[in-house]
Amino acid sequence: MLFNSIEFLIFFPTACLLYYLIPHRFRCAFLLVCSYFFYMCWNPGYALLLLTSTVITYASGLLIASADRMEDEAERTRRKKLYVALSFVSNLAILFFFKYYAFAADTIVRLLQTVGIRARIPAFDLVLPVGISFYTFKVLSYIMDVYRKDICAERNFLKYALYVSFFPQIAAGPIERSKNLLTQLDEKHKFEFERVRSGLLLMLYGYFQKVVLSEYLAIAVNSVYDSYKERTGYQLLVATVLFAFQIYCDFDSYSNIAIGAARVMGFRTMENFNTPYFAESVADFWRRWHISLSGWFRDYLYIPLGGNRKGEFRRQLNLMIVFFVSGLWHGASWHFVVWGCINGAWQVIGRWLKPTRKKIQELFHVDETVFSHKLLRMLITFGLIDFSWIFFRADFRQSLSVIKKIVRIGGGWITWGGNMKAMGLTYQTVILLCVSLLILFLSDLCRYRKIDLIDVICRQGLWLRWLVYLFGIFGILIFGVYGPGYDAQAFIYFQF
Amino acid sequence: MRKTIQRVGGILVLCILAFVVFAVVNDILRLKVGQETDMVHSFYDIEENTLDVLGIGSSHSYHSIQPGSLWGEYGIPSYVMSSPSQPVACSYYLLKEMLRYQNPKVVLLETFSFREETQYNTEGYLRSAIDGIHIGKVKTELLEDFFPDYSWKQKLSYYIPFLVYHNRWSELKNYDFNRVAWMKGGVLDFRVVPQTEPEFPEKPLKLPKNTRKYLKKIIDLCEENGIQLILYAAPMANNWSVKKALRINLSVEKYAAKRGIPFFFYQKTKELGIDYETDFYDDQHLNTYGTDKLTKHIAEWMVQNCGLTDHRQEEKYKSWDEDYERFNARREKMLEARKEN
């Protein structure tokens, strides 16, 4: 079930209420049942895949732990590597089959066609299991952590199965680390009013981001990108800028709802976005964007590849490999790979240009600490990231056409109102979007300055607190895009 | 413990406050069928067991019966619970719902929608008719009848129309904040668009199965409750739908005669003296000049044949006089404005 569905609005309070009412010893099993129910609402059959991954990695974890007790070091290392390899191969094979098989088959057929060979590879009509990329990475991180002895292998199967399937995170993350969540599953969570309130407020903000901001932005972006050939460069430029906020709101909303829901039940989960558009470089952006995924790639791919320990060339090569894989993770299509590679390339180019940049700064006595300099860096970073989003939003050929049109912007400067209408927006929705984007900006600004806005709200007097609650709830109810006639747009990240 | 009680109390108060705000917001945002007249919703503002006459049916119903005039000239308390293209099936359920609150002596059913072969024409027309029905037994029965295969989720927006209409925030009009129950479901429209008289067909057209089904239910319901059902067909001008409607009415005439139900087929009898140059505001509907003629005719028939009495001096109906004054003031103002133009 989607977070922005009526089913979830019934399921979540019921699950929470029962969670706090039942004795502690049954809570783990109860949450596991809830999580599988939540997951099976999409496709009951795919719960078997989830269970398979869980069983394989649970057993692998125990086998690695048992191998750890062997005295012969060579045999111990060999066995541990074997179990890790088996676990990785089996899980990645499932992921490959369900997510990348059609893509790989199509690529091979096309490649063979270019050398004059006609080939046919059997096709399977498969629906991508929801959250498969997320939970596969989650279980692989567990295996690596057990292998590295960062955590002990979990012996309680129910606990481990809950860690993998924990319903707030199963569909779109954050990709929680086992050492954070597994250890919390033994904690006895009491109903703490302040914590529950804080979780609910975070969820409310997430709903605002999704149902109001992201959905209205989607109207404008989709209307332009779906008919990009007839659009002016100016409209495509505006739509591309708006898409940067749409995808941010979409994914951050999911993370906020997930983190908030977990918090209501007493779980502390990792943050996933930290004001990414305040980043001052592309590398900084990736420290702030989808932190759980970036961290995963850093710990389980970049560092094992050698990270920055093997010289500048290897460092840059490793970066490109990581972003190539990251692109592929986001979608089984070459345009996602291009998107990933562009993000890797920005960082490599950034490193090449670093000495030149330094020289220019020294020449013009640029003070790096002043606001104007930071703002300039933020704007340039935003421009670079937004450029890459074009390849994320559209396929490769479309992206090139869009870029061409944006560069040849001439002839597109028609009236503001005319453009908005052409983008499917009315005068009222433009005002709503501006106000909503202002709220998003102020909220992110507070976070950037390390101000906990929820805490600030909760410390206010009753009248202001209640005013915020009511404005939040009714703002979403009135201005949100939902209901009949409207096919609730699936969270963008569900397709990954 | 004290803190817990305080918090639980606080949450309860907040929930009540949220509910009140929701009720206000919902009332502003919901679709007002008939704009300020707000036909189905305003029905619930009428004091229980005060109505003698209820009008149901399509737009031809509220463009032919004027509750203000019925009160002002005959002392008949009436309400028109109609909606655009109201399906007969909806008329049946509206009548059923209305009978939970009122005990009328007469039900006036306009027959334009009898030509429809399905339970409802479009979702919009359906919603116009049933959104206003309060959540309860009748609404549940209606939804079960109309959508036997729908899941609870698909039916939800019929119980909570806010789910559909919350997006109206960008198109709110004055009447969304000021609906007027004192029009009793009637409309005032003095626009005059000259029309031509349609040719009268000779051959009847069989009543659709669905119409027969729900008409029978309406007849049975009226009989059970001792209500005099009156069928009538408001005059129409030459338009795309008139031929079919008139042919259907020829069948209604036979059916009504068979069941012993009065049927006023005004297009055929021409007893209203409708002037096609002055009594229509479009090619389908009567304007207020035409409505006055039809209302007068049917009112006099009801007074003579249905035992309706004049309630104007009764204490219970004091508010009806006030409502009539407002109606009359609006009417005079509109007439003056028309003269000036």
Overview in brief:
The complex is a heterodimer of chains A (496) and B (341). Chain A is mainly alpha-helical.
How many strand elements of chain A?
0
Question: How would you characterize the largest beta sheet of chain B?
Answer: 5 strands, parallel
Unreliable runs of chain A, pLDDT <50, ≥5 residues? 486-496
The residue fraction in helices of chain B comes out at 40-55%
Total of DSSP H or I helical runs spanning 4+ residues of chain A = 20
Overall number of strands of chain B: 5
Provide the succession of SSEs of chain B: HHEHHEHEHHHHHHEHEHHH
Task: Explain the overall architecture.
The complex is a heterodimer of chains A (496) and B (341). Chain A starts with 5 loop residues before the first helix and ends in a 17-residue tail after the last helix. Chain A has helices at 6-21, 24-40, 47-68, 73-114, 132-147, 157-165, 167-170, 178-184, 193-225, 233-264, 282-288, 291-302, 311-330, 334-363, 371-393, 396-407, 416-422, 427-448, 453-458, 462-479. Chain A folds into two domains: 6-191, no CATH class; 195-495, no CATH class. With 496 residues, chain A is mainly α. In chain A, helix 12 (291-302) packs across helix 13. Chain A is built from 20 helices and no strands. Helices cover 72% and strands 0% of the residues of chain A. Chain B is globular. The mean pLDDT of chain B is 90. Chain B has one domain: SGNH hydrolase (Rossmann fold, 3-Layer(aba) Sandwich). A five-stranded parallel β-sheet of chain B has the order 2-1-3-4-5, sandwiched between helices. Chain B has helices at 2-29, 39-42, 59-62, 67-74, 88-98, 123-130, 137-146, 152-159, 162-165, 174-177, 209-224, 242-259, 266-269, 288-305, 318-340, and strands at residues 53-56, 78-80, 106-110, 228-233, 263-265. In chain B, helix 4 (67-74) packs across helix 14, helix 4 (67-74) packs across helix 15 (318-340) and helix 5 runs parallel beside helix 11. The longest helix of chain B has 28 residues, at 2-29. Chain B starts with a helix and ends with a helix. Chain B is of the alpha/beta class and 341 residues long. Chain B is built from 15 helices and five strands. At the A-B interface, helix 18 and helix 20 of A face helix 1, helix 8 and helix 9 of B.
